[in-house]
Amino acid sequence: MQTTIMTVEEIRALATDTLRAHGCDEANAAAIAENMTQAERAGAASHGLFRLAGHVTNLKNGRANGAAKPILEKLGPATLRVNGDGGFAPLAQKIGLDPLAEAARETGIAALAITRTMHYAALWPEVSVLAEQGLAAMAMTSSPPFVAPAGGTKPFFGTNPMAFAWPRKDAAPMVWDQAASVTARGEVMLHKMAGKPMPDGSGLDADGNPTTDPDAILTGAQLPFGGYKGASLALMIDLMAGPLIGEVCSFEAGPPNNTLGGPSEGGEIILAFDPTHFAGAGALDHGERLFEALLTQEGTRLPGARRGPAREKSDQEGVAIANETLAKIQALGS
Amino acid sequence: MQTTIMTVEEIRALATDTLRAHGCDEANAAAIAENMTQAERAGAASHGLFRLAGHVTNLKNGRANGAAKPILEKLGPATLRVNGDGGFAPLAQKIGLDPLAEAARETGIAALAITRTMHYAALWPEVSVLAEQGLAAMAMTSSPPFVAPAGGTKPFFGTNPMAFAWPRKDAAPMVWDQAASVTARGEVMLHKMAGKPMPDGSGLDADGNPTTDPDAILTGAQLPFGGYKGASLALMIDLMAGPLIGEVCSFEAGPPNNTLGGPSEGGEIILAFDPTHFAGAGALDHGERLFEALLTQEGTRLPGARRGPAREKSDQEGVAIANETLAKIQALGS
Questions:
Q1: How far is B192 from chain A (nearest CA, A)?
Q2: Among A157, A198, A228, B178, which is least packed by CB within 10 angstroms?
Q3: Least CB–CB distance from A109: residue in B79, B148, B164
Q4: CA of A314 to nearest chain B CA: how many angstroms apart?
Q5: What is the ipTM of this complex?
Q6: Contact (CB, 8 A) for A251 and B290
Q7: What's the per-residue H, E or C state across A80-138?
C-alpha cells in the first residue's frame, strides 16, 4: 500500500477544508476534523481521513446536515439529551460532554443520550474526554446491520461498539473501545483495500459460509466476537443506544449510507461515573494499584496503551496516509 | 452422574434448614435459599445447592456473618449503597433493589453499590427483579483471581460476570448473565465432578499451557472469552465493582475461600435505567419490535430464553440434584 506522510496539522487542515468545501459550517467542520485528526494521530486509520469521502457523500446527498445546531436538554439531575439536528456526531458530543461531566460530579452517575446524529462509531474520543476530567465513562452506539447474531447467518446487529475509560493519576486515561463483532467495520474495509484476508472466524459470505475474504464478508455478515457472548453484548448495545433513548436499532438503520464508509443515523448513550462519589478520594489510587499489579504480575499492557506512543510518533514524524484515501478525497472536488 | 429428583419446595427447605442449622438467621437463610432455589429451578445448577457446602464453610470459619443486618444509604438522588455487614449478598440485594428501582424511576438512571458482602456471582436474579418492574438493568461483580489476562498466563481477573436485563411487555424479561471468562467457575467445577473435558480455549494449566482438563484449569487459569476483548470487559468489571465503589479488585480478593465453591468477599454494582424517561411510553414496544425481528428474521432465540421453560419443567417434574452434592450437604451435619 503506497502512502504519503502528512503532519497532524496537514491532516486537520485537509479534513477541515474538505468538509467546509462540501457544506459543513465552521463549527461542524472543526469538530469532525478534530475527531478524524485524533484518530489518525492515535494510529486508528479506520476512523481517520479514510472516512472523509463517506462524510462528503452524506453531505452531498442531503442525509447529513452540515450546519447542524445541536440542542442540549437537561432531563433531570442525572440525565441529559443532545438532539443532533441531523448532523454528524462530533459537534453534538462536544456540546454534551461538559454538562454530562458536571452532572456526574454532582450526582455520582449521569447519562447523556445523543439522538438525531450520524455516527461513525469510534467511541474512545468521548470517553477519554470524560476520563481526563477524573470520571469513569462508558459509551455505546449501534450501526447499520453488519453482524449475524449467534446461530444466525444474515446481518442483524450493528458492529455495536462499546467503550470504557478510567481516569489515571499521572497518565493518560485507560481506554478501550471495541466492536461487539470480531473487528470494526472499517477494519474489514481496510483489509479489502490492502488485499489482506481477515482472521478466521471474522465473518460469513452471503450464503452463510465461513470466509476470511474481506469482500465476501462485506456483502455477507461479520460475526460477533466470542460467539453468543459477543452477540449478547450486541443486543444490549442495540437496546441501550436504541429503544432506551428513542433512537433506531441496527436492524432499523437500513443498509449503510454508501460504500465509502459514510456514517449512519443513530443514537449513542454515554454514562459517566464519579469514582470519588462512592469510594472517596482514594478511588484513583486504588485503580493505580490494579494497573500496577496487572503490568508487573502479568507483564501485559493496558488496553489502549498503544495510543500514547502512537500520538508521540505522529507528532514527531507525521502519519502515513494511504494514497488511495488521498485520491478519493481529491476526487471529491471542491 | 447419579441424581435425585427434588421438588422446588424441597430444594428451598433443604437450603433454608441447612443455612439455619449453621448460623444464618431467618432473614439471611430465606434470602440465600431463595436465590439458590431460583437457580436450580431455572436449570443453573452451578449456582444452586452445589454452593451450599461452600456457604456453610464460610459460616463455620467465621468469614461470613450469618446474621448480617445490611444497611441502606441514599447517597444522592441517583445513587444508593448497601453495606452488607459481612453477610452473603442476597439479603443486601433484597434491601437495595426496590429503592434502586424507585430512584431510577425518579431520575431515569440510578446506581446501587453493594459492599461488604460475600457473593457467588449469579447476577441474573437481581437484574430480573428490576426488569420485572419495567427497568433496564446492568450488574457487575468481581471474584477471586481465576482468569489470566490476554497475553498472561497466571490468574489475575475474576470470572467477573456482567448481567443485563430488558423489560418485556407480555413476557418474562430478556436477561443475560455471562462471565468475562469462557465459562463460569462453577461450570469448571461441575465438569470436574462429572469427569468431562472443558471446551477448547477454556484455560491453561499451572505451567501456562492450554488444556481442557477441568482439574488442571482449576489449579491453572481460566481464559477470557474472545481473547483481549473479554479481558477488556474483565478489567472494566474489576474497576466498576472495585475501585469505583470502594471494594476489592479480583487480584486483592486473594485465593478462593474454600474448595467447595464458597462465595468470596467483594462488591457489586447494579445500574437501573427507566426507558420511559428518555424515550417515552413507546420504549418497550420498540424493544418488542427488536426481539420480534431477531426471532423471525434470524430464527435464533433470545438470551436467557431457556430459563422460562426450565422453570415450568422444574415446577412440574422437580429438579435432578447430583447425589454428590446431596452427600456433601449431608456431611455438613446439623
A1: 23
A2: A228
A3: B79
A4: 25
A5: 0.94
A6: yes
A7: EEEEEEEEEHHHHHHHHHHHHHHHHHHHCEEEEEEEEEEECCCCHHHHHHHHCCCCEEE
Which residues 6+ apart lie within 8 Å of B333 measured at CB?
A: none
pLDDT in tens, B53-74: 999 999 998 889 999 999 999 9
Q: Of B165, B161, B156, which is closest to residue B119 (Cα–Cα)?
A: B161
pLDDT of residue A259: 63
Spatial strand order of the sheet with A162-166 comes to: A71-76, A79-88, A109-119, A264-273, A136-141, A162-166, A174-178
User: Min CA distance, A245 vs chain B (Å)?
Assistant: 5
Distance CA(B180)–CA(B230), nearest Å, equals 5
Contact indicator for B110, B104 with CB cutoff of 8 Å: yes
Residues of chain A contacting residue B228, judged by C-beta atoms under 8 Å apart = 303
The cell for B294 is 431477531
CA distances from B16 to B37, B55, B120, B122, B191 (A): 10, 12, 17, 18, 26
Interchain contact, A156 vs B78, CB within 8 Å: no
Please state, in angstroms and rounded to a whole number, the distance separating the CA atoms of residues B114 and A278. Answer: 11
DSSP structure class, residue B181: B
Cα separation, B98 vs B134, in Å, equals: 12
Please name the residue that has the C-alpha cell 481464559.
B223
Q: CA dihedral defined by A13, A18, A23, A27, rounded to 10 degrees?
A: -20
* Residue type for position A333: G
- Is residue A127 within 8 A of residue A288, CB to CB? The reply is no
Main-chain dihedrals φ then ψ at residue B31, nearest 5 degrees: -65, -45
Cβ atoms of residues A184 and A159 within 8 Å: yes
Give the nearest chain A residue to B134 (CA atoms): A244
B300 and A152 Cβ atoms separated by less than 8 Å: yes
Taking alpha carbons only, the member of B161, B260, B141, B159 closest to residue B202 is B159
Under 8 Å between Cβ of A303 and B235: yes
3-class secondary structure per residue, B236-263: HHHHHHCHHHCCCCHHHCCCCCCCCCCC
Instruction: Quick: pLDDT tens for A185-228.
Output: 888 988 998 899 999 999 999 999 999 999 999 999 999 999 99
Please identify which of the residues B187, B247, B265, B268 carries the catalytic annotation.
B187
**pTM to 2 decimal places:** 0.95
B281: nearest CA partner in chain A? A246
**Distance from C-alpha of B158 to C-alpha of B249, rounded to nearest angstrom:** 8
Q: How many C-beta atoms surround the C-beta of residue A169 within 10 A?
A: 10
Q: Which residues contact B252 (CB under 8 A, 6 or more apart)?
A: A289, B242
The phi, psi pair for B308, rounded to 5°, reads: -60, -60
